[in-house]
Design goal:
heterotrimer, A alpha/beta (about 190), B alpha/beta (about 325), C alpha/beta (about 425), B: about 325 residues, alpha/beta, Rossmann fold, eight-stranded mixed sheet, 11 helices, about 35% helix, C: about 425 residues, 3 domains, six-stranded mixed sheet, 16 strands, about 20% strand, globular
Chain lengths: ~190, ~325, ~425
């Protein structure tokens, strides 16, 4: 079983991101479970959503306490909420930012993990460019497809189109593809470093 | 030369039960083919205004709908005396809802008829003043707002009679009830602003609102007939004296109802789509004392220490009604 | 057809397939997505021949359902928590009258203190009202139970409550197999009422019954639920034959055949329990899980039979009989043939507190080693409790309990000294 935890703020589409991730996994024939942590959500408040993916039926219902991957939609959460709690040693982290782990102040923590599994992508900028709205969730899923290899970019695109119709859907798919490429480049650079 | 206008009131031709009238001109009650939907054998008190009003209203509704009628009934006198275990006096399909939800149950029945394509079957919700103005108020307002195809009939005997004559929001000022006893500085019910359900119904802008009393059979039947020609939320507020609760002679039920209208205390009106469309004029305006005196629930206003101040306040209410609705021709 | 959708959506689609005629709904978290979905389906005419009524309260919702059902229409509504309580009078009315209304209860805690998260207090507060109560373990079962509920209810003339954990199931996306209309039509015939308001054959429904016959009427209600106990397993078999999967029935047994310890529970926690039990089994512990699907009528004989072999029974429940202890455990106690001391009540997950494998493992280890008390509150913060009790001992004006505890937790800013 592969467990993903997504951190963000209310209004950034964190819950939708988890749902789309689960749809992508489903489209590739896997079992997937997506659910939010259920706080009194309001715009701007920290929000967490979870997604589990497995080849077999998923029975577990607890929150994801020991994630295999983290997607952080809002870097301002890094020092406010314990986003890294329970992360596996060889876990994946994808942060929505144009800065580095070091610049974000989590460089030391990052050094305890596997470098090629830690990626950043300026998802909000990509969303603004391709969709016209600063909603980074779909783009981040494209980046996630690249870094973790759990689901393909095609599956992500199909999941996005299920959630968002017409031009908005296509824009998000373009953003996701751009994020995918960005992360691929980053991973290639990291492994050559 | 000075002259005095004299009004002649036609009697005889259209009085109740006149068998010389052509069939189509007779009241429903005078027609031997009336459905008698509230059959005899029920356990109402002698002289019960509500039993009378229910029979008048439902028979008229059955006539108007070709006997395609379903009724929902709130908990209260009517429900209790009409279905004493193991009997029922209802000749129509009838359901006892709960106390506060009759309008909602009727909404459900109407929805079922609509979805099954049986739009010729009409729905009546009926309850007393307690079940309408108090505990049933929320569901009533909801039904009004949705304009559900229901005629709601409120039988107003101005207190919770079934449970022993306790005060409701329909109880008039100064009236004695078990929870507003005739003691203290302000004996009987307090003077508040009342709760004018017909006005509230009108404020909901529903297609039809009417008030009527058991003293004017033809007026009541005409209003029921008119209501059943309309689709949507309709409200009929029926004034029904209660000999036991009001402390008047059981043979005076109709007379008391007539006095309520003729004093102006109970305005008889019709409203369409939120506007008053017609009023039944008072023929000979009478002072409220004539209405209050025969009822023991107002006995404390008379006797050795009469409360003319209270009676004056009640008179002011009647006068206000007359002004507000134009009940007396100048 | 396999779909990856939200639990609420799965339920909405299942209900729609059952050809409901009147749907009335009042919004309350966490049921809202179900009725929103149905409302949209009716408006877009995807769900045809159905009246969708926006009512002004939950009391009105159940009342409209009563009127519709009494007039011969297949009626449905959904609620949770406070809403279920607000309609309580009508809930009893529906079962007393024998009207086969189906209602989803998206299980949620009841205030005070106000809490929107999952536990079973709401449904269990109405456990004796005469409704059939079914609890879904996952969203597939939630979907399936609604289809079974209409069938069950209409054959028995009893209303059915389908319970699914609020948020945990309602708001979770998972894979479900949504049947076809043809499959559901074959399983669920049109509604044939036992009693109906019909001008062609007038009847009086809801008349008063006095001391002469009230005992008999209530006995018949009980007898009807006893009959349901006999019929439900057969209907579950029929469902399996028609739809190709196990769903519903009275209870689900998991690795109980040779278990010395059996854990009993309702609802979604069963999934977590099964994972936990698999781990314990790998460590050689002989432990199994008994999931109660049908809570009312209480499957006394089936539970007794399932627990026959067990030396100890641990009942995990998201409910509390204040002043007594466990609700589900008390029901289990009536069924357990072994020593009374062997049934342990573990109150867990109240108000949405997560129940984790780790906590369950620790608690079950205690159980297996005889260290578990008869009544335990899982993951209770004893220090927090002690502070609250101390505060009350020290001052008369100890303040609102919720605020005081939240201050202690650091959630609300502390008072300036």
């Amino acid at each position: 079983m592969f467990q993903v935890r997504i951190h963000g703020r209310g209004g950034q589409g964190v819950v939708t991101a988890a749902e789309m991730l689960s749809i992508a996994a489903f489209l590739e024939g896997k079992h997937a479970q997506a659910f939010p942590s259920f706080g009194s959500e309001r715009t701007g408040a920290p929000v967490v959503a979870f997604c589990r993916v497995d080849e077999r039926e998923i029975r577990l219902r607890e929150p994801v306490l020991d994630p295999d991957a983290l997607i952080i939609q809002d870097p301002t959460l890094l020092h406010q909420v314990d986003v890294f709690g329970g992360l596996a040693r060889d876990g994946y982290i994808l942060i929505n930012t144009s800065r580095s782990f070091e610049a974000l102040g989590v460089g030391e923590f990052a050094r305890s993990l596997r470098a090629e599994r830690l990626c950043t992508v300026p998802a909000t900028e990509l969303a603004l460019k391709h969709v016209g709205r600063p909603l980074p969730n779909a783009a981040l899923l494209g980046g996630f497809a690249a870094v973790a290899g759990l689901i393909s970019l095609d599956a992500v695109a199909a999941a996005i189109r299920e959630k968002f119709a017409g031009a908005v859907g296509e824009g998000n798919v373009a953003a996701a593809a751009a994020a995918y490429e960005h992360v691929r480049r980053e991973m290639a650079e990291a492994s050559h470093a | 030369m000075a002259f005095q206008p004299v009004k002649f009131y036609q009697t005889g031709t259209f009085t109740v039960g006149n068998r010389l009238l052509a069939l189509e001109e007779r009241s429903v009650q005078a027609n031997m083919r009336r459905t008698n939907s509230l059959n005899s054998g029920h356990r109402a008190c002698q002289g019960c205004g509500e039993a009378l009003g229910a029979r008048y209203a439902i028979d008229a509704a059955m006539e108007a709908t070709g006997r395609r009628l379903i009724a929902a009934n709130a908990t209260g006198c009517l429900e209790v005396f009409s279905t004493p275990y193991p009997e029922t006096s209802w000749q129509i399909p009838w359901i006892h809802s709960l106390f506060g939800n009759t309008a909602a149950v009727a909404t459900g029945i109407a929805a079922a008829m609509r979805v099954k394509g049986k739009s010729d079957v009409r729905v009546i919700a009926q309850g007393g003043d307690g079940g309408t103005t108090d505990i049933g108020f929320g569901c009533l307002s909801g039904m009004f707002e949705r304009n559900d195809d229901v005629l709601y009939i409120c039988y107003d005997n101005e207190a919770y009679m079934n449970t022993g004559v306790q005060r409701s929001s329909a109880t008039p000022p100064a009236a004695r009830t078990a929870t507003t006893t005739a003691v203290g500085e302000e004996p009987g019910n307090v003077f508040g602003q009342g709760k004018n359900l017909p006005a509230i119904a009108i404020a909901h802008d529903i297609p039809y609102v009417a008030t009527a009393t058991v003293a004017e059979l033809r007026d009541l039947e005409a209003k029921v007939r008119r209501a059943m020609q309309i689709r949507g939320a309709r409200y009929l507020h029926l004034f029904v004296p209660c000999p036991l609760g009001w402390g008047h002679a059981s043979e005076d039920t109709i007379r008391i109802a007539r006095l309520a209208k003729e004093t102006g205390l109970f305005p008889v009106i019709e409203a369409v789509d939120g506007e008053v469309a017609a009023v039944s004029k008072i023929r000979r305006k009478l002072p409220v004392e004539e209405y209050l005196r025969p009822q023991k629930r107002f006995a404390h206003l008379f006797g050795s220490a009469p409360r003319s101040d209270v009676i004056a306040r009640i008179q002011a209410i009647a006068d206000r009604n007359i002004r507000r609705y134009g009940l007396v021709d100048a | 057809m396999l779909k990856q959708i939200e639990g609420s959506r799965a339920v909405a689609e299942a209900v729609a397939l059952c050809r409901p005629e009147v749907i009335c709904a009042y919004p309350i978290s966490p049921q809202t997505h179900i009725v929103e979905g149905l409302g949209e389906m009716v408006k877009s005419r995807e769900l045809a021949r159905c009246e969708f009524i926006n009512v002004e309260s939950e009391f009105a919702a159940m009342s409209v359902a009563i009127g519709a059902s009494a007039a011969g229409a297949r009626a449905y509504t959904a609620t949770a928590s406070q809403g279920l309580l607000y309609m309580a009078e009508a809930v009893f009315n529906a079962s007393g009258l024998g009207l086969p209304i189906v209602m989803t209860v998206a299980n949620r805690a009841i205030g005070a203190p106000i809490n929107i998260w999952n536990d079973h207090t709401d449904a269990l507060s109405q456990r004796d009202c005469g409704w059939i109560q079914l609890f879904a373990e996952n969203n597939q079962e939630a979907l399936d139970l609604h289809i079974q509920a209409f069938r069950l209810g209409e054959e028995l003339s009893l209303p059915v409550m389908v319970c699914m954990d609020g948020f945990i199931l309602t708001h979770a996306y998972e894979r479900v197999d949504v049947p076809t209309q043809a499959q559901v039509d074959a399983y669920l015939p049109p509604f044939e009422p036992r009693q109906v308001l019909d001008p062609a054959e007038p009847v009086s429904i809801g008349a008063m019954v006095g001391p002469e016959a009230f005992m008999e009427v209530r006995y018949l209600a009980h007898a009807k639920q006893m009959r349901a106990l006999e019929l439900i397993p057969g209907w579950a078999d029929e469902f399996r034959a028609a739809f190709g999967r196990e769903s519903g029935g009275l209870l689900h047994r998991y690795r109980t055949e040779d278990a010395d310890t059996v854990v009993v529970a309702l609802g979604s926690v069963l999934g977590t329990l099964k994972d936990t039990v698999d781990e314990l089994r790998r460590d050689g512990v002989k432990i199994g899980v008994l999931g109660i699907t049908c809570f009312r009528p209480w499957p006394l004989a089936a539970v007794r039979s399932a627990l026959e072999r067990a030396e100890r029974v641990v009942v995990i429940e998201k409910s509390l009989a204040v002043g007594l202890g466990g609700i589900v455990s008390s029901n289990v106690g009536t069924s357990f043939g072994g020593s009374p001391g062997a049934v342990h009540a573990v109150i867990a997950g109240l108000g949405g507190r997560a129940i984790t494998r780790a906590s369950l493992s620790r608690m079950l280890a205690d159980a297996v080693h005889g260290r578990l008390e008869p009544l335990t509150f899982l993951d209770l913060d004893r220090a927090l409790v002690e502070r609250a009790l101390a505060r009350e001992r020290e001052q008369r004006r100890s303040g609102p309990i919720a605020e005081s505890i939240l201050r202690d937790l650091g959630v609300v800013a502390s008072r300036p000294v």
